[in-house]
Amino acid sequence: MIRPVKHPKSQVYRIRKGIPAPLRHLFGGKSELIESLGTKDPAEAKRLAPGVITRIEALIAGAGLRSRGDGVPLSDRRVAELAGVYYREGAAAVESEPGAAEDAERAVELLEDEAEPTDLGHNLDDGGHWRPEFVPGRSDLAEAAARAAAGGLSPDHASVRRIAVELFYARVALARLRLRRARGDWSRDGYADRFPPAGGAQGVPSESQGPSAPAMPARKLLDAWATERQPAPATLRRYRTAFAHVARILGFDDLRRVRPEDVVTFKGRRLAERISVETVADDVMGCGAVCKWGVQNKHLLMNPFASMAPRPAKRGETARDGFTDDEAAAILQAARGATGWRRWLPWLLCFTGARISEIVELRRKDVRQEAGVWILDIRPTAARAGKNATFQRMLPLHPSVIEEGFLAYVGVLPIGGDGSLFPDLTVARDGTRTVAATSALGRWVRRDLGITNPRKAPAHSWRHRMEDELRKARVTEEAQDAITGRHNPRNAGAGYGKGYRGMPDEVLKELRKVPSPLAVRDQARAAPAMPQEAHQPSTH
């Protein structure tokens, strides 16, 4: 029986599984597969081990099938066709009888519990649908293989895995469709449009993407992807670095040769280098996003990174805390004695809850009036591409910021140059100011102001604080999202109209409910002390 064992140097638990000699050539000559569990805790390692063992054994079993010619890889289109047949069959039943709303809601919750959404910005696909990381279990793989066999297909294991993942997403979509119908929402179901009609392209033998095909260096595909997608400079740099690590570890730079087994090797080596699970997951998902585009645009026949990202361990609580009233007041008070960006960045972060990149990349002209109120016009630029499409919003200025004199600061800014709201911040070679601002703000808050709690992030803790302040003020959920720039669609009507993001005058009515931490501190100081109970002598 395979058990977790400690790495001799890092003491991180890992799984080791020997590869049968006849199959070693399929794994680059290696005699065993090793995958880190990403933890030093024996109880956590024991919990994670079964899934990793299953995954490794499945890889070896799939290699055995391929070595015997018993399985072929399927194209992404063919996998989508199988999922589409499943979805359309289920949708027909839902449309006929959705059942009770309570049952439908419970089904959605149970399915979502099977996959933990990551905090890496990859939970939504290009159509805005929820796409968390999902690792199929034995029953999921068995169902996927059975459905493929029913369609007359003999896929390799990697394709079975991809089918299982797509079937899971289809089940989630069906559960959500059932819930909408049970609640009386009979609007058009657009999810079915994502699937191609059945009976299209068949599975493609692995050799067609092997050495006989022209090489596809990562840089070539990444440049083509970037030309169309126009990612943020930081995203492009991160993806280039990830692909560079892939080429370094695998020993070749040709995405048409990369197989899922190679991605397993890549993950194991990176984790063995003591790189965090979150970073490795981010790299795999980034490479997968580019390769998915490559498949869609006929540069690649398959995406070897699909659903291969390691799953970071669940956190029992958030890794960050918001600033307390006293901490927030101390920072704002200290900012009053500063100039330039240090004078106004803390105030804007405090009263907007915005991401630091959204604030420091603003231009002078982004501070303007709309619907009779002063706003920060947060929209995509070359330096500020945004985390998702819904970050764009007209964010009203809180009365406390205006009363503090922020508009007077804006009024005397130079009109020339790049028109930055903070021209005194250092500009990086890519034209952005976020890195410099994050570093300088961190030094000021931690070193000069003495707020050294590792759970307090000098910039992002303002965002956590604002979320809590909005909750305490009973601000509506849609207005909360319009203020913080989050994507939380709640029903079919969420995509209709311009919403609160385009109504700064309405959002201001909600934002006014959030008090200034300076006012909260002053009120606390002015409050009379509670009288202590007079000590009464005992009568006994």
UniProtKB/TrEMBL annotation:
The keyword DNA-binding applies. It comes from Siccirubricoccus deserti. InterPro entries: DNA_brk_join_enz, DUF6538, Integrase-like_cat_sf, Integrase_catalytic, Integrase_recombinase_N. Keywords: DNA recombination, DNA-binding. This is Tyrosine-type recombinase/integrase. Residues 318-509 form the Tyr recombinase domain. Coiled coil: none annotated. GO terms for molecular function: DNA binding. One of its GO terms (biological process) is DNA integration. SUPFAM superfamilies: DNA breaking-rejoining enzymes. The keyword DNA-binding applies. CDD domains: INT_C_like_1. Residues 193-215, 515-540 are annotated as: Disordered. It holds the Pfam family DUF6538.
